[in-house]
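Database export, one record per block. Field names are fixed; values are copied verbatim from the stored entry.
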Amino acid sequence: MKTVIKRILSFGSLNIDHVYQVEHLVRPGETVAGNQYFRFAGGKGLNQSLAMARAGARVFHAGKIGADGLWLKQLLIDNGVDVSFVKVVKGPTGHAIIQVNRKGENAIVIHGGANQEIKASEVGHIFKEFMPGDFLVIQNEISAVPTIIKQAASRGLQIFFNPTPMRPEVLNYPLRLVSYFIINEVEGAQLTRRRRPKEILEVMQENFPQASVVLTLGERGACFSGPGKRIAIPAVKVKAVDTTAAGDTFIGYLVAEIAAGRDISNALKTACQAAAICVTRHGAADSIPFRRELPK
């Protein structure tokens, strides 16, 4: 029997990262000269869409940008992502101003911009294009997240939720509609008030018995807990130079593998392999590997 590959709607952030290398982080009232300036594509939504597309999935991205972010839309197009639901609005694209000093320490100012212009009243028409069994991937860097989750559930989509950045209001989201939680240890602790991975998984399953939970453990790999199943997968040992976008790469490949009908054990292994390649490279979007780069 032929496996039907699910369509994936990635409803998420699109950011521009402005990075300045400085001798030291600026102090109040001080003006410093930047030694170098870099502009990078960013946002967890964009990163995860790229990862899923590079893994071979059929991905649609929904979100908003300003006119200054048109190149982000083109980047998605160039990687095979359908951008029919990316809208251009007045005002700036979401962005970050990042200072990095000689020691590698940073200071970051984030402005939500167009990411915070998503209105609950605009969401419904997007989901009319998707069918029961399709996937929604969403994080917490955009507005209207509770409505998006409810609309996806009403259409029968499987919902993959990565609650980053984790804020208190997440606890009031309609979390019982979530199909898969993909969380790290910090987010797990905030959701469960537990710190040990085993306890985090146990409490998550007690609180959300309808959901599967993937808990990422950095260099220790990842764990999965679902109805009647518990799996632990070790990380691939590599020399890391930059962990930016490693989590998004893991999530993107994991969802892409599940959408393609792979079992969860193999999906986790593939996601760990992709994340391992990512951390050997500098940058965010540029560090996300293509499937052809993974071991056979």
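Remark 1: The two ends are 24 Å apart (CA to CA).
Remark 2: The longest helix spans residues 264-278.
End of record.
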